[in-house]
């Protein structure tokens, strides 16, 4: 009985994980490119990991939001 319960639990976990898998969209690729370029540039300027992580994340998210808002048609 316990083996069946464990098997069902594992199947549910696998099914839930499979439902959450998605393909990367071009927007995600643009964010990754923006972030990596910004992060490299920031670190080359002598800034630390945490500073660059927060700065680049905020900058690239803002750029991504601007592109999404610009593409809206009312």
Automatic annotation (TrEMBL):
UniProt xrefs under Gene3D superfamilies: Pollen allergen ole e 6
Signal peptide: 1-24
Alphabetic keyword roster: Signal
A Pfam family the protein falls into: Ole_e_6
Name of the protein: Major pollen allergen Ole e 6-like
């Amino acid at each position: 009985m316990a083996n069946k319960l464990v098997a069902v639990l594992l199947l549910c976990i696998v099914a839930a994980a499979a439902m959450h898998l998605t393909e990367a969209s071009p927007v995600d690729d643009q964010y990754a490119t923006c972030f990596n370029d910004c992060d490299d540039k920031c670190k080359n300027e002598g800034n630390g990991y945490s500073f660059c992580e927060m700065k680049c994340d905020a900058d690239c998210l803002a750029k991504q939001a601007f592109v999404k808002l610009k593409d809206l048609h009312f």
